Amino acid sequence: MCYFRWLLGFLHLLVWGSIILVHAIPAPDPVQCNRTICTLSNSYGAWGDRKDCSVKSVVYPTTEEELRSAVAHANKNKLKVKVVSKFSHTIPKLACPSSLGHDSLLISTAKYDSGIEIDSVNLAVTADAGVALRDVIDKVEEAGLSLVAAPYWEGVSVAGMISTGAHGSSWWGKGGAVHDHVIGLSMIVPGNESEGYAKVKQIGAQDQLLNAAKVSLGILGVISKVKLSLERGFKRSITYNFTNDSSIENNFMEHGKKYEFGDITWYPSKHTAVYRYDSRVPMDTPGDGINDFLGFQSNEILISKSVRASEELFESTKSVNGECTLADTTLWYKKQIGNGLKNNGKIFTGYPVVGRQGKMQTSGSCLYSPKTRIDASCAWDPRIKGLFFYESTAIFTATKFGDFIKDVKKLRDLKPENFCGIDHYNGFLIRYIKASKAYLGQSEDSIVVDFNYYRADEASTPRLNQDVMEEVEQMAFFKYGARPHWAKNRNLAFLKVQSKYLNFNKFIAVKKQLDPENMLSSEWSDEILFGKEGVGSDGCALEGLCICSEDRHCSPSKGYFCKPGLVYSEARVCRYSPSSSNL
């Protein structure tokens, strides 16, 4: 048994942290078509409800005029229309135009991805909607400039990135949310017959429409170009401090104020907090480091499949010790190799790691590959049966976050090993977002918490310690009123979301103005935007499609019953019990 545990730990070490230079197979195209119908998937291979998204046809415009023509065609023919990029990393079904399929058009910006214009005088960059974030960053850095904010994952298009509120981490300057660095955009909206059924609307920095358009969820219009503010080029210096988590609820506020790009990763089962000391430094500071985050590196397919098989074994045998072995190994190895930081672009040799902003602000090396390499991929590539997980992301008012941490600690202290299933992914990633004028942005300085956890291959299969994850999830969104990240989360996180945004009605007013016929809306986007509660079907709570109120919403045949939370007693969670009368 000891050897078996060691082997599994070693496999997990490799999947997250191999320093062998591995390149991944290209990511799958999110749109697949046969002779009769097309199907849209996200990069994880499954939507929240696990149902396919079928569309009648797909178009691939290459210019703004072709994009306008596609919108006009949809409007003239009364088709539902949505837009998808070549990445499709959104977890909710925002990009699915209709459940019917036959009355829909999908517009892909995969080929509308070449236009990047740098304005060095006015410190701005304008990019076509489908341009990849990495391409924008590289072009900007070549001009001696820097884009200040970016999400940690670079596999996004510029339009998709701002539309869903993607962010990095910062309370400084304009903040960590990319949309708060938008100073203009072009959006194609439905028009009348005399306008050719669609028109390009230019929205500038002083236009009130920008507050609605820069986080629009794709339901106001089709973004064609995005203009972002820049700064003179700079470098960053990063150090990770692995320490005890005893004061995290008292330290997080000061940490965000002290470090421009700081974050904290919390591993509750290990009683460990990792403080990221991350600040800008002058361009003449020595160092040519890069941030190649472990979770976004290429992984040997065999290893990814082996780790998934280990997870499935631990789940089926309810082996908490197995999950904790993975958590121990992951945390130890991250510490040894600086979580993917590389001083000279190849290996980690010690702190601080200093590098240009464009090499430190985001990562995603598993996206890139020579066409000849077929034995490695991103760990979650659905074609290989690798990692398959949920991602919950809650955005807290900063003044409430300390009490949330205290509650999670109370839950953790009941049985710390129950958090190993979160910790062997990436624990709780804590980041900072500044107050925004965007109607669907954050109205006050906020804290963002991300945590990932195992998702079963079958919707009807319960998860080990799933009641713990569910209690944390409900504690965040309902006890503390956290707001869900628009591009992540299970459906229940969006319940009553409209009441959490002060300017929600202003956004709806703009929606009615720009798309009065709801051409760009669908039952899926309405479900998210209006926080509609799902139907209470058998097993619905297992996938986060509902909050359980009856045992049948869990899996009583497999010993999972609907129970109150252990710390947040108003929570209703699916807990493994010998009978429904027991805790």
Summarize the topology.
Blueprint: H1 2-17, E1 31-33, E2 38-40, E3 53-55, E4 57-59, H2 64-76, E5 80-84, E6 104-108, E7 116-119, E8 124-128, H3 133-142, E9 145-146, H4 158-163, E10 182-190, E11 198-204, H5 210-213, E12 222-229, E13 231-232, E14 235-244, H6 248-258, E15 263-267, E16 272-281, E17 290-291, E18 299-300, H7 301-317, H8 320-336, E19 341-342, E20 353-356, H9 357-360, E21 376-377, E22 389-397, H10 398-414, H11 420-423, E23 428-433, E24 446-454, H12 466-479, E25 483-484, H13 504-514, H14 523-529, E26 560-564, E27 572-576
Parallel strand pairs: 4-6, 5-6
Antiparallel strand pairs: 1-2, 2-3, 7-8, 8-12, 9-13, 10-11, 10-12, 14-16, 14-20, 15-16, 15-23, 17-19, 18-21, 22-24, 22-25, 23-24, 26-27
Helix pairs in contact: 1-7, 1-8, 6-10, 7-8, 10-12
Describe this structure in words.
- Its EC number is 1.1.3.8.
- It catalyses: L-gulono-1,4-lactone + O2 = L-ascorbate + H2O2 + H(+).
- The chain is of the alpha+beta class and 583 residues long.
- Among the domains are: 116-233, Uridine Diphospho-n-acetylenolpyruvylglucosamine Reductase, domain 3; 235-495, 3-Layer(aba) Sandwich (Vanillyl-alcohol Oxidase, Chain A, domain 3).
- Helices cover 26% and strands 23% of the residues.
- It is built from 14 helices and 27 strands.
- The strands form eight sheets. An eight-stranded antiparallel β-sheet has the order 20-14-16-15-23-24-22-25. The chain has a five-stranded antiparallel β-sheet with strand order 7-8-12-10-11.
- Helix 1 packs across helix 7, helix 6 (248-258) packs antiparallel against helix 10 (398-414) and helix 7 runs antiparallel to helix 8.
- The protein is globular.
- It starts with a helix and ends in a 7-residue tail after the last strand.
